[in-house]
Amino acid sequence: MKTNKVVILRHGESEFNKLNLFCGWHDAPLTDKGLEDASKIAVAGLRQHQMQFDVIYTSLLQRAHQTVDVIRENLKYHDVPVIYDWRLNERHYGNLTGFNKRQVANKYGEEKVQIWRRSFDVLPPEITPDNPYYAKIRNNPKFKDIPKDKFPDTESLKTLMLRAIPLWEQEIMPKVLNGQRVLVVAHGTVVRALMKYIENISDDDIMKVNIPNSVPCVFEYDLSSGQRMGNIQYLADADYVKKETEKVAAIGN
Ligand SMILES: O=C(O)[C@H](O)COP(=O)(O)O
Fold first, then answer.
1. Which residue, of 75, 158, 212, 226, is most buried by count of CB atoms within 10 Å of its CB?
2. Is 16 annotated as a binding residue?
3. Which is the catalytic residue, given 26, 90, 155, 244?
4. Of all atoms in ligand 1, which is nearest to the CA of residue 101?
5. Roughly how many angstroms between the first and final C-alpha of the chain, as a whole number?
6. Which stretches of 178-229 are DSSP H helices?
7. 221 phi/psi in degrees, rounded to 5
8. What is the topology classification, in CATH, of domain 3-250?
């Protein structure tokens, strides 16, 4: 039986992850720890499982690019082409962008914050011009080619899926089923979106899914039927994955 694997990875810890701030489309860089984990966790996992790639897909955001760079540098993937696509950007966090998750929970309640963070279709309030990150995001030159009518002011997992799944179905999956080895380096909500779609996870169950930084997730396909095989494989120590997943699920301090 001929099979092929596709790997999906969330970037390393960003400055906003560290400060526990809603980030979304704000272009925060990785922290030193984020850079280190990209190599110690992501690269180590890929290397240990002898993963090779023909093409890498990523978003327009630097935290994903820096993660890609660490992988390319360490695994000598300089010849592997990188495709940058806005449809892999993190979900736009609306007017929550830039605010501390704990402080927002103290103001609106934990339940409300978890609905904003993890529900399938509840949109955070739209970003308004008085938000300190509004102009930075709107004027980010990297976003200049995004169609005006597609540029979001807030997004839920559902609306993110409306942009990310067509890319997966029309560009990424045909390559995977053609035998190309694809690595996707993206963001927490993008990984949740792809997982929901691939694994057919219900709108309720996806609320419990949290994605740790820097841990490669592997999905295997049977090339003759195009069907998914087996379970998701995480290329990191199980205790590490559990600990990091719990950290992401929590609202933090
Ligand atoms: O955009 C962000 O703040 C993070 O990348 C994801 O945050 P979350 O885990 O709170 O959705």
1. 212
2. yes
3. 90
4. 10
5. 49
6. 188-199
7. -120, 145
8. Rossmann fold (3.40.50)
Q: Which residue type sits at 157?
A: L
Cβ neighbors of 179 (< 8 A, separation 6 or more) are: 2, 4, 223
Mark whether 90 is an active-site residue.
yes
pLDDT in tens, 35-89: 999 999 999 999 999 999 999 999 999 999 999 999 999 999 999 999 999 999 9
Cα angle: 181, vertex 241, 253; to 5 degrees: 125
pLDDT digits (tens, 9 = 90+) for 106-160: 999 999 999 999 999 999 999 999 999 999 999 999 999 999 999 999 999 999 9
Domain regions of the chain by residue span: 3-250
Q: Output the CA–CA distances (angstroms, integers) from residue 43 to 3, 26, 50, 142, 225, in the order listed.
A: 23, 26, 10, 27, 31
The answer, yes or no, to whether residue 253 has pLDDT greater than 90, is no
